[in-house]
Amino acid sequence: MGWALALHGGAGDIPRSLPTERREPRLATLRRCLDLGAAALRAGRPALDVVELVVRELEDCPHFNAGRGSVLTADGTVEMEAAVMEGATLRCGAVSGLSTVVNPVSLARLVMEKTPHIYLAFHGAEAFAREQGVETKDPSHFITEDNIERLRQAKEANRVQIDYTQPMKGQSPQETKAPVDDNSQTGTVGCVAIDAAGNLATATSTGGLVNKMPGRIGDTPLVGAGTYANAICAVSATGRGEEIIRHTVARDVAALMEHCGLPLRDAAARVVAGTPRGTTGLVAVSGAGEVCMAHNTTGMFRACATEDGYAEVGIWTDEADGNGASVSVRL
Amino acid sequence: MGWALAVQGAAGAISPSLPPELREPRLATLRRCLDLGAAALRAGRHALDVVELVVRELENCPHFNAGRGSVLTADGTVEMEASIMEGRTLRCGAVVGLSTVVNPISLARVLMEKTPVIYLAFDGAEAFARDQGVETKDPSYFITQDNIERLRQEKEANKLQSTKGQSPQEIPSPTDGNSRIGTVGCVAVDAAGNLASATSTGGHANKMAGRIGDTPIVGAGTYANALCAVSTTGMGEDIIRYTVARDVAAVMEHRGLPLRDAAVRVVAGMPRDTVGLVAVSGAGEVCMVYNTIGMFRACATEAGHTEVGIWADDVDANGESVSIRL
Predict the structure, then answer these.
(1) What pLDDT does residue A172 have?
(2) How many helical (H) and strand (E) elements, i.e. helices and strands, does chain B have?
(3) Would you call A242 and B218 a contact, using CB atoms and an 8 Å cutoff?
(4) Looking at beta carbons, which residues of chain A come within 8 Å of B253?
(5) What is the pLDDT of residue B180?
(6) Of A40, A125, B58, B318, which cross-links A120 as Cys (Cβ 3.0–4.6 Å)?
(7) Using the 8-state DSSP alphabet, how is residue B4 labeled?
(8) With 50 as the cut, is the pLDDT of residue A162 above it?
(9) Do A122 and B243 touch (CB under 8 A)?
């Protein structure tokens, strides 16, 4: 059977016209993360360590909506959230409302390992971070020019439309349908893995929705919504947080496998198909070593690798750069 | 089929020697809530209205761990959380970290109905409360003497436990019968078959500031879909990792089990002494299942069944009980 790993950098309405300079740095990071994760698994590291280290890399990369590079709230601030979960034990940890913690996923792991609690948020989470001596930086460290611009556009769009399409300045009305802003308002990073010993783990991290109300929490830190692992599978979701919450996406994949005996791919496809179009993506691995990456959005930044040598990196579905039969499903 | 309603006011190590002065006021409130809820259902009110109004009553009652009477954080403050969900549409709302809002459940509903956001916390939630003009009071309003005492006992027990090397979960519960856990909740199916669930709490006594429990987490403490509505109470962390409320519905759906069997299966799969739940189904079934010593609970159906109780052997019911203690 062997180890397997899958990771994502956000599902959304990622336009095919995405310019090279917006595509390549992210693909490069996905490849680097895939290599790091695969190397760790080959070296026998436990799944929990692997998902944490991969998500830390993604948080540190300013091109993804997590850690540095997180999208901004309506107040122009950053409120980061993350969760980890270990399949074999159902242990989990989650944090929300972080503004200075360099690696939210690592703080989530500390909540899991060092407290009797699962979930800490806002002031309490920041205080815990200081107690634990994790790396923190001034809030300005996390804010990028791209995100300041993204917020400005979102506020402008809100004045004329209620929905979340973001017109780009200087474009004709016909071209405003697909936002050129490649992160659009969705985006999260995540990683799932099964290690050589068969342990499953998942980790997800995000800055949330651009222009979100301060205090708004999405699906990422909610066990069963954006993040879930048990003995059957590990799932990390991305997309429109509110839909992922009400459809308990991550939990449902495992439930379908357990109760209906579906293989991972079918369970994932069914769950994603059950959410509104354009809202959901996920990566998952099962205890049997299956890997799946499913989305009902235009695209999802993603990558996966297995011990028997399969590897795939992609954004959309028909261009996935894989060395075998794709495990990506677009619904 | 008809309407049905169930209410909970916490599951836990509620000592059978709980004195009348701690038992009667809570039972009286449960009965009053049952009457209010049943009257509203008889009058044709929507399930969402009913669960909200019942939980508001429980939040206003200082003897339950929600709203006024919420347990205190390690800092001696109140951080309240609540969530509400409508079965047919899967609409939901949740609020966390409130310190001045008199009725957290109502704020959760306003969030659900007025914004595209499901989940709002701490300063942002308090700011939203002010924007919406919901009733707020000074934080001191929510703090009761009982809870100040409860916190003192918890801190004392923690000191003992850290010298003995016990894990926090092994601390014996204070004998006042509230233990450290508690929540209030209500589920209902109305005359038109609409399902709804609402849960509210102050959380876990002596919790770390910022700690969020199961109550506001859709799928853990609260869940409703077209099949059933569930509200849970107990050890928040266990309820989260076992996604209790969601699992009841999933087991009904995928295994074709009736509500009672699904609820029993889910609760039986949890560690002992960690959980209680009340649930109603779209078919009008109602059940109240717990694996703790007791659970403050009550239910009523259109067919005329009513039940109020705390333990397994004190149930005041006018027919066959729908309570199950595992």
Answers:
(1) 36
(2) 8, 15
(3) no
(4) 259
(5) 54
(6) A125
(7) E
(8) no
(9) no
How far is CA B282 from each of CA A154, B249, B252, rounded to the nearest angstrom?
A: 41, 11, 11
DSSP string, A177-192: SS-S-TTTT---EEEE
A206-222 confidence digits (pLDDT tens): 999 999 999 999 999 99
Q: Which of A188, A202, A248, A280 is catalytic?
A: A188
- For residues B168-180, average pLDDT: 48
Residues A36, A38, A39, A43, CA torsion sign: positive
CA of A8, closest CA in chain B: separation in Å?
A: 23
Residue B280 φ/ψ region, left for φ over 0, alpha for ψ in the -120 to 50 degree band, beta for the rest: beta
Are B211 and A117 a contacting pair at CB < 8 A?
Answer: yes
Subunit contact B117:A216, Cβ cutoff 8 A: yes
Which residues of chain B lie closer than 8 angstroms to A128, CB-CB? 208, 210
Residue holding tokens 């400005």? A152
Question: Which SS3 state, helix, strand or coil, does residue A81 take?
Answer: strand
Is residue A238 annotated as part of the catalytic site, yes or no? no
What whole-number distance in Å separates Cα of residue B205 and Cα of residue B158? 11
ipTM over 0.90: yes
Which one of B72, B122, B274 makes the best mutation probe of the A interface by having the most chain A beta carbons within 10 Å? B122
**CA of B117 to nearest chain A CA: how many angstroms apart?**
7
pLDDT tens-place string over residues B107-164: 999 999 999 999 999 999 999 999 999 999 999 999 999 999 999 999 998 877 666 5
Task: Tell me the C-alpha distance between A201 and A261, whole Å.
Answer: 21
Q: Which pLDDT tens digit goes with each residue over A75-130?
A: 999 999 999 999 999 999 999 999 999 999 999 999 999 999 999 999 999 999 99
Distance from the Cα of B119 to chain A's closest Cα (Å) equals: 5
DSSP count for chain A of H helices, then E strands: 8, 15
pTM of the predicted structure, to 2 decimals:
0.93
